[in-house]
Structures are given as C-alpha cells and as structure tokens.
Amino acid sequence: MPIRENKAAVVAGLLLSLATAATPTPAAPVLRVGAIPDQNPEKLNRLYGALSSELGEQLKVKVRYVPVSNYAAAVSAFRAGSLDLVWFGGLTGVQARLQTPGARVLAQRDIDARFTSVFIANGSSGLRPLSSQDQLIQLKGKRFTFGSESSTSGRLMPQYFMQQVGVLPSQFAGGRPGFSGSHDATIALVQSGAYQVGALNEQVWKSNVKNGRIDPAKVRVIWRTPSYVDYHWVARPGLDQRFGAGFTQRIQTTLIGLEPDTSRRELVLSLFGAKRFIPANANHYAAIEKVGRQLGKIR
Questions:
Q1: Which of 3.40.50.720, 3.40.980.10, 3.40.190.10, 3.90.1150.10 would CATH assign to domain 30-113+230-294?
Q2: Domain boundaries in the chain?
Q3: What is the spatial distance between Cα 83 and Cα 35, in angstroms, rounded to a whole number?
Q4: pTM (2 decimals)?
Q5: Coil, helix or strand at residue 261
Q6: Which residues pair with 279 in a beta bridge?
Q7: What would the pLDDT profile of 29-59 be if each residue is shown by its tens digit?
C-alpha cells in the first residue's frame, strides 16, 4: 500500500475510533417502583428499599423506589409514566387503571382478598364497642377522621358502610370529617384526643398494637367492617418493550414466588404483613369501582 494511502487509512481509523468513543452508550432502563404513602416514611423506605433490591436481583435490572407525597400523586405519576410498578390500594388502583389504558393488575397479598377496616375511638368519647353496623349511627356529632381522602380502607369503605345506615360525613362535628393523610396518623390523632373516632386499615392497627404503639387506656377498636378486596400491584403497559418480551409476567412470577427463605425476603413479607402474594386481576376490583362511583371518587 502506498505511503499516502496508508496514512489515510490510519487517519480514517482514528476518526472512526473517536466517533465511536463519543457516541454515548444507551442507559440501561430502570424499573421505577412506587407505592401509596399509607404509613410513615421510615417504614416505607425500609420496605420498598428491601423489595427493590430483591426485585433487582431476581429480574436482573436496575430497580429504584420513588416515594410520592400522597395517594393522588401515585396515580398521577403512574399515568405520566414516572412510575412503572406501583403498590396501590383498591380505589387508587382502579383510578390508575382507568387513567392508564393497558395497565395490568399483577398480584395482591393473601390478606387482601378479605380485607377489613376498624373504627377506633378515644376513651373519652363515651363510645363502647358496637355490636352491629346499625349502631354506627352513634358516630353522628362526633369528631371523626378518615385517613387519606383516596384511601380504600381508611376512607372509601368505612364511608360506604356508614352511608348504608344513614351516617353522612356532613353529620360529624363541625359538619365534616378530618383527613389525617395516613393510617398511622389516624391512630395518633384519635389516641391524642384530637379526634374522638377514626377509621383505618386493620392490618396497620394490628401492627401498631404488636409494636407497642397503642395505649389501650386511651384508644380501642369499637367496630370491624365486613370484608372487601383491597391492595394490589399494578404494572404500566409497555414494560415488555422496554425490558424485553415477557418482563411483566416475570415481575408477577417473582412477586408470587416470594417465600420467607432469606432474611431479606422474610423482612419484605413481614413489613407487608403477609405470608405471600397471590395472583389478582382487574375483575376482583369491580365492587371497589362500583362503590367509588357511588361515592363520587370515580367519575
């Protein structure tokens, strides 16, 4: 090869190398996990941090937990594509799927198929345990707080059961209920006496009792609701295109396959208050959608 041609080939090779080096490597997709903020941030960070590590290891992808400020923000972030996989309550899950066509219900906990709420009362309220749903009429005129406005177990279903016997939010002291924002906050407000009565997720109540955060001299359960279906995992459409064919199914298989056979998996299930996850589908939440429409939370 002539010297001139040889030099040209060397220069061309160098330019190609520089061009290749300058071209950025596409970033690996990140699975963004979210959840409704139904409990204190410390517990949520611990729970979803451990779960994200477990999912990342099993699915062989980067997983990041992305906290949100409130229930509505979880639904909005899911719709906008800022969250890919979200732990929703019954109502927020329905809202998210209606706003995000193609979203898929993957799983629920074993306890979510027959979930319950509890009504709790401060000892100074004068309320005793109620023997029937009809006795909820005694709550009229009381200072009452729900949890989040979009909570299934802390607002939607408690309001539904009260409405069945003629107790309306406008009949509480002050003409309206309070909204604490979370189940933990509801306990704290009723225990302190700021509110006389509140409604919350029974699983959170039991967890607080177990951890010694409840003073039985100040607050106690006065009524337990009939059961209903509640929390569930929902995945955005398009994950198979971003992460590879069958990825959404792999997430479901991983969640359902979680067993307490390592310390991290045991921690995750314990913090979820469950023994395992079970398959779920959108049809399971038809009754929640119906109640949501009746109470004006779904339009």
A1: 3.40.190.10
A2: 30-113+230-294, 116-224
A3: 9
A4: 0.88
A5: coil
A6: 107
A7: 999 999 999 999 999 999 999 999 999 999 9
